[in-house]
Design goal:
The chain has 291 residues and is an alpha/beta fold. The protein has one domain: Rossmann fold, CATH 3.40.50.1820. It is built from ten helices and ten strands. The strands form two sheets. The chain has an eight-stranded mixed sheet with strand order 1-2-4-3-5-6-9-10, with helices on both faces. Strands 7-8 form a two-stranded antiparallel ribbon. The N terminus is likely disordered.
Length: 291
């Protein structure tokens, strides 16, 4: 079980912060033009066809398992704050000679902005997928509650499918092969999520204020397009959150994906891909490798 995306050209290892190595899938060769960053509790396989579609537009694309997720290293010290994830991305981009388009879902979007606080010159554009400086706590708590709901894992892949289907009742039952990439088998035959449970330690009252301050500062400091892609039916990002985001500068843009909730890429993958490619085309002089 690799945890990778079977549509990827190859798997790569990426030196990150704190001596950790992150796993990634690559479409094309470095230097990277675009970096994909998944949401909390997911792996790089969550992006589906996004990498290959962007590569078809002439971009060299990297999709990363964040620390503590998928086949990337776990941090023995339990350092999983947004700032820690941001340090990892900043370390990866430090070795990249040109700025990238960062596409981040939820936790991945926050990771992009925290890296931008450290290395703003490394960004050509930032796409935030259903993540913004302000968020609805009820929606976030619903997600965290599900992530915490099965600490002992599942007896089988089918049992995990049933749990996900109950949580995401608006979507079709997840296929076993796809779900398997988000699970790992323990020595006693249980199936647990493919991430370090300590990644949830950030979810406390102080987190909301810190992430709002950091993400607001990053967006205000950037002078490149920052695009919010919101699921039209999301309970995490609502109209007031979009308004706060849009007021942060003329370089901000936002678009909605109809019929999608928080997991935008999974809910409406083809529409999502069409939307971000079109929006990037409008925001950048040309959608292709940076000069």
């Amino acid at each position: 079980m690799t945890g990778g995306n079977p549509a990827a050209g190859r798997t790569v290892g990426l030196p990150a912060a704190d001596g950790l190595t992150l796993a990634g899938d690559a479409w094309g060769d470095p230097p990277w033009d675009a970096v994909l960053l998944h949401g909390g509790g997911q792996t790089r396989s969550a992006w589906g066809r996004t990498g290959s579609r962007l590569h078809a537009h002439g971009l060299s694309v990297l999709s990363v398992d964040l620390r503590g997720h998928g086949t990337s290293a776990w941090d023995e010290a339990g350092r999983y704050s947004f700032r820690d994830h941001g340090r990892d991305l900043a370390a990866i981009l430090a070795a990249n000679p040109r700025p990238v388009i960062a596409v981040g879902a939820s936790l991945g979007g926050s990771t992009s902005l925290h890296a931008a606080l450290l290395r703003p010159e490394k960004f050509r554009a930032v796409v935030l997928v259903d993540i913004a400086p302000t968020m609805q706590r009820t929606g976030v708590n619903r997600i965290v509650g599900f992530m915490r709901s099965h600490p002992d894992g599942f007896a089988s892949i089918a049992e995990a499918q049933s749990a996900v289907a109950a949580y995401q009742s608006h979507r079709r039952r997840p296929p076993g092969d796809g779900l398997r990439r988000n699970l790992r088998e323990t020595p006693d035959g249980r199936w647990v999520w493919h991430w370090d449970p300590r990644t949830l330690d950030f979810a406390n009252e102080g987190w909301y204020l810190r992430q709002q301050e950091d993400m607001t500062a990053a967006i205000r400091a950037l002078d490149v397009p920052v695009i919010l892609v919101r699921g039209a039916e999301s309970d995490v990002i609502v109209d007031s959150d979009v308004a706060y985001f849009a007021a942060l500068g003329a370089h901000t843009r936002h678009v909605e994906v109809p019929n999608a909730r928080h997991m935008v890429a999974g809910d409406e993958n083809d529409v999502f891909l069409d939307q971000i490619i079109a929006e990037l085309g409008r925001a950048l002089p040309s959608l292709g490798p940076a000069a």
